[in-house]
Amino acid sequence: MWLVTDCYLPLLKDKTEWKDTKVVWEISEKNNSTQINFTRIGLVPEIECYKDCIKGWDQYVKESLFRLLTQHKDFPD
Predict the structure, then answer these.
(1) Which pTM does this prediction carry?
(2) Cα–Cα distance between 15 and 71 in angstroms, integer?
(3) What is the DSSP string of 23-46?
(4) d(Cα 18, Cα 8) in Å, to the nearest integer?
(5) Closest CA relative to residue 48, chosen from 5, 21, 16
(6) 2: part of which helix (H) or strand (E)?
(7) pLDDT for 41-55, tens place per residue?
(8) Which residue pairs, CB below 8 angstroms and at least 24 apart, start in 56-62?
């Protein structure tokens, strides 16, 4: 787990919106494969960056990290 102890998000009204939130990585085995669960504790629909943050984390975790782990390539090629 990572604890965000400080941040500066220049495009948001609350520049420290991520402060005191947590990033949790859980790695386990499922059906003879590795399963990675990513949870962003504190990223809730009520905060300003929610929609953009969801898109960003989805790109990094579901696309970029997945591609790096399965094809040994990252974005861009």
Answers:
(1) 0.73
(2) 36
(3) EEEEEEEETTEEEEEEEEET--TT
(4) 8
(5) 16
(6) strand 2-3
(7) 999 999 999 999 999
(8) 61/36
